[in-house]
From TrEMBL:
Keyword Oxidoreductase: no
GO biological process: carbohydrate derivative metabolic process
UniProt cross-references to InterPro entries, sorted A to Z: Glyco_trans_1, Glyco_trans_4-like_N
SUPFAM superfamilies in alphabetical order: UDP-Glycosyltransferase/glycogen phosphorylase
Protein name per its UniProtKB record: Glycosyltransferase involved in cell wall bisynthesis
Species lineage: Bacteria, Pseudomonadati, Pseudomonadota, Gammaproteobacteria, Lysobacterales
Residue ranges of domain Glycosyl transferase family in the record: 172-308
Length: 351
């Protein structure tokens, strides 16, 4: 199968540091190459892949030091190149939400658009109603709730390479972990209060975006350096196994309709329990009492910290391998691709 994978240009593929969407695009691209497919990756020029690389911009936008950048212009230039080459591909798999639709409408039937972001924004329904022929893929069923009528082709959970992380033989379990963006919706402040209430140190590996600097300066910085609250900053994939694997639990106290939450399965790959807020996709991704606990309050989260020792780290890793491996993700996407390439057969099965 000839497949185009189209990534955002904000981070390289894979990203040097933080970057959930680009990380998933990388895992899927390399897995499809391993499966013998002819794959072209549209991404920034500093990306690394065994697929054919179609350069959309010389450098990923976030790590480019140029003082003035035009992100929309860069993406539309890449999409223009993709449109000219559309006949080369059996399937065009888009990972940049709504941007491609006005340009690629003639090829909609051969596209798959994975929605990586939240779908509850005011202007989205009107936009998607204008482009009903584009098959959409959700990364959780919860993500679909604002637009259940949309042209959803399926739900495919994110997956990680099975070898990427491994549980440590003897995890220390002497701290709690927070990994992600230091932003209001991720509620790092809530994680700090949970750790304090539970009486445990908290290690924070977080990215601080420009948009979140005021929140970090005014809300988070005054809480650091006390009661074992340690800010580490961004970490790479190479550091995650040690960071997550030796934690007592990962705290995921979000305050927004999280579409998936990649860090939850990164922790599960390390055998580490997750304590997540009952919000967005959390109840869908976590198995209560198996891979972690789903909570509604700081007090409930602190109580869950005291109970995570009852969970089997071996069983947590098994659940990851069964549900959230890159092999499982790739199989599900290939099934969806084939559905688009063979619609008469699908109609016969449904009849």
């Amino acid at each position: 199968m000839r497949i185009a994978q189209v990534s955002p240009l904000f981070e390289s593929v894979p990203p040097k540091l933080y970057g959930g969407t680009e990380r998933v695009v990388s895992y899927l691209t390399e897995s499809l190459v391993d499966a013998g497919h002819e794959v072209t990756l549209f991404a920034s020029g500093d990306s690394h892949t065994r697929a054919q690389l179609a350069v959309g911009r010389d450098l990923a936008l976030r790590l480019d030091d140029a003082p003035l950048k035009a992100a929309v212009a860069a993406h539309f230039a890449m999409l223009s190149d993709l449109r000219k080459r559309a006949a080369e591909f059996d399937i065009i798999h888009l990972h940049i939400d709504l941007l491609p639709m006005p340009l690629l409408e003639p090829f909609a039937a051969r596209t798959v658009s994975t929605m990586h972001g939240r779908q509850d924004k005011k202007d989205l329904p009107a936009f998607y109603r204008r482009f009903p022929d584009f098959p959409l893929v959700s990364i959780s069923d919860a993500q679909r709730k604002p637009m259940p009528w949309a042209n959803w082709l399926g739900t495919v959970y994110h997956g990680l390479p099975e070898h990427l992380y491994a549980p440590p033989a003897n995890p220390r379990g002497d701290y709690l972990a927070f990994l992600g963006r230091a932003s209001p919706e991720k509620r790092l402040d809530r994680a700090i209060h949970i750790a304090r209430r539970a009486g445990m140190p908290l290690r924070i590996a977080a990215k601080v975006d420009v948009a979140d600097r005021v929140y970090f300066r005014e809300t988070i910085r005054p809480l650091l350096g006390h009661d074992g609250i340690e800010f580490i900053g961004e970490i790479s994939d190479a550091d995650k196994a040690e960071f997550l694997g030796n934690a007592r639990a990962l705290l995921f106290p979000i305050d927004w309709p999280e579409p998936f939450g990649l860090v939850m399965i990164e922790a599960m790959a390390c055998g580490t329990p997750v304590i997540g807020w009952r919000c967005g996709a959390v109840p869908e991704v976590l198995d209560e009492g198996v891979t972690g606990y789903i909570v509604d309050s700081i007090a409930g989260a602190a109580e869950a910290v005291a109970r995570v020792g009852e969970l089997s780290r071996e069983r947590i890793r098994q659940v990851f391998e069964q549900r959230y491996s890159v092999s499982a993700m790739t199989r599900e996407y290939l099934t969806l691709y084939q559905t688009l390439l063979d619609p008469p057969a699908v109609r016969m099965l449904e009849a």
